[in-house]
Amino acid sequence: MAAHDPVAQLRVDGDETASVRSTFDLSYQALASETQRLFRLLGLVPAPGGLASAAAAALAGLPVEAVEPLIDQLARYHLVKVAENTRLACHDLLLQHAANLTAEQDPPAEQDAATDRLLHFYLHNTDRAAALLHGRSSLKLSRDPQPDGVPIVEFAAEAHAQQWLHDEWANIVAGLDFAAATGRHRMAWHLADAVRDFMQLQAPPQYRSVVLTGLHAARQAGDLQGEAAMRHSLGVLCWRVAEFHAMIDECQAAADLAARARWPQGQSAALCNSGIALAQLGQTRQAIHRFTQSLAIDRRIGDRAGEAALLINLAAAHEQLGNLPAAARFGEAALRPLRETGQRQGEAIALSYLATVRREQGHLVEALDTITASLAICRSVGARHDEAAGLTTLGLVHRDAERHDAALEALTAAFEIAQRLPDRRLTTFALVGLANVQIRRGHLADAEDRLDAATNLAHRIEHDRAIVEALLATCELHLAKQQPRRAHDRATRALEIAQRSGYTLLAAQAHSHLATASLEMRDPAGCLEHCEQALTLQRPAGQRLAQARTLLLRARAHQSQGDVTLARSHREQARRVLDQILPPPSAITNA
């Protein structure tokens, strides 16, 4: 039966009235002609998520208010069911019957027109929803004109756009697959391109197969720009799952195709994304070179959205190098073009980086305000990946302010979201943050479990920054367990990787841990040497809280050497800094 027409097969031999088709026809023949036509057209394109009335209107080429009475009539005759969410669903046998009827009664040109209207409905309204949630993309491609009779979905708010994409996702994927299978190659890859921004927000399931279908369709159509766009999407997907070497390969392929297609926005995006991958692999200076090349292209062609994205990445890269003043300048410079172009997700990311910079500079109240604003945007547009990253930053702000319960709450929320996402970096950083807090609370066994998991993940994804942060947290654990020799070994390894990868602030942190371990091993001279190295890195970066802690460490070393005057001087310096930057408890509240 699966191999043939199941509607025709379901009958009693010798009795033409005893068949499924004849039974269906009793209801069908009772319908008005316009309602019959709508029913027939339901069999054209799969809609596993059920058709919204606006989609049914697109299929029929009628206004929504005109198609709703037809849907009601179909429901009264039990040819469709209307669910609580007002979407109409149809049994597979009825859909097969509808497909048979449209093949028999509707001219091929009318069938094609109805199909095109529905696919354009998905394409253009996906673009509108993505633009509201994500802002104008620098990679926005020119679409074919929307045919007459295709309703425009008006999104009252970001939550409405987010819900529409969620509800239509299964239908968009089915429509894309149908377009590819029926030779509508241009439509297939355009649909795959349209959902890219949605993927950047939430990374829905099936996305890899969607992009691969789009890539095949672009090749079938001989469209270099389409192929470049699909390679770009594959690169973004690699970033989501922390496969950075593969991301660089996809970016190179995208850049080559974009150059052949004479598409400068595509070339710029490929350079930018390869820079992101290099930065994640610890090759930060090479990443800055790629970002600078990309920024030059965007400024030459006047692409403000692309320019804003580059400024965010330059902020992140300079933070990684420990140049916090430059990171703050780039992050603040990004906010204006981000807001001008409506890039809400980009604004959230820029605010998150600025919050990180402010935290590292010891401006904890400002850091809290900034990361709270970032999280509000993430939640409004449904950017779960960026929400997890922001919650980790929030947890670290609370940790630095010595509000351990609030830190634990934020980091636990970050971990729970990260667990449901494919990006294992986020899980690693949340685990390290949780371990940091548990060490400060004295819950060392729990911290050790978290760090074992974080270390394994960091090595599995070959992420140097995650490895260094896990090593430094493990060093703290050994110090808390009064194991200074083991702490010294971990900090030495962390320092080697941090220096090789250009992680200046992490190198400073490693020197501080080495100083603490040296003092615990009764080596005050070694402690003072590492304190000096740490301060040399912390002062230019403006890391006031870290400087204060290093000064307190120097005071302990001088005290152990019997130099009470120097010890008192360093303690007073540290206290003045701490009085300036540590807010009263009332200034730091849960976000």
Give the SSE map.
Elements: H1 6-9, E1 11-12, E2 15-19, H2 20-29, H3 33-41, H4 53-60, H5 64-76, E3 81-82, E4 88-89, H6 92-105, H7 108-134, H8 158-181, H9 185-194, H10 196-202, H11 207-221, H12 224-240, H13 244-260, H14 264-280, H15 284-301, H16 304-321, H17 324-340, H18 344-361, H19 364-381, H20 384-400, H21 404-419, H22 424-441, H23 444-460, H24 464-480, H25 484-501, H26 504-520, H27 524-541, H28 544-560, H29 564-581
Antiparallel strand pairs: 1-2, 3-4
Helix pairs in contact: 3-5, 3-6, 4-5, 4-7, 7-8, 7-9, 8-9, 8-11, 9-11, 9-12, 11-12, 12-13, 12-14, 13-14, 14-15, 14-16, 15-16, 16-17, 16-18, 17-18, 18-19, 18-20, 19-20, 20-21, 20-22, 21-22, 22-23, 22-24, 23-24, 24-25, 24-26, 25-26, 26-27, 26-28, 27-28, 28-29
Describe the protein's architecture and organization.
The protein has 591 residues and is an all-alpha fold. The protein contains 29 helices and 4 strands. It has helices at 6-9, 20-29, 33-41, 53-60, 64-76, 92-105, 108-134, 158-181, 185-194, 196-202, 207-221, 224-240, 244-260, 264-280, 284-301, 304-321, 324-340, 344-361, 364-381, 384-400, 404-419, 424-441, 444-460, 464-480, 484-501, 504-520, 524-541, 544-560, 564-581, and strands at 11-12, 15-19, 81-82, 88-89. The strands form 2 sheets. A two-stranded antiparallel sheet has the order 1-2. A two-stranded antiparallel ribbon has the order 3-4. Helix 18 packs parallel to helix 20 (384-400), helix 22 packs antiparallel against helix 23 (444-460) and helix 24 runs parallel beside helix 26 (504-520). The two termini are 58 Å apart.
